[in-house]
Amino acid sequence: MKSYADYLTMNVPARMGFVNITPQVAAAVKKSGIQEGMALVNAMHITASVFINDDESGLHEDYKKWLEDLAPFDASPRRYAHNRTGEDNADAHMKRQIMGREVVVAITNGKLDFGPWEQIFYGEFDGRRPKRVLVKVIGE
Ligand code: ZN
Question: Which CATH superfamily includes the segment(s) 2-139?
Fold first, then answer.
């Protein structure tokens, strides 16, 4: 079995944002030389996500509104216990929890084996600083 790893550095200039990282993941799969296997892609920070969905800007605006309704940003210590510890990003931890930590995609004939419209996104919920994403490819 072969294995290959790449670390992407993300730096989203807003507090919340989504970035299509499919080209970077596809490039890692190509570099790995693996024809049959799996690619794991995970955020290495607890206030960021990796998820799969449609690359449609209206949907991404809907996600932002939905997440803000569920876990509004509130740096004050009133709403969130986490923000009584000197932190201000409890909302970002909750947004990450609901959008997930990682995805696993099958590799078939050397390519990411997606369903229709599937793309891989990095989701940032406490941005304006560099964060890493792990791409780990295993197989033959
Ligand atoms: Zn925190």
Answer: YjbQ-like (2.60.120.460)
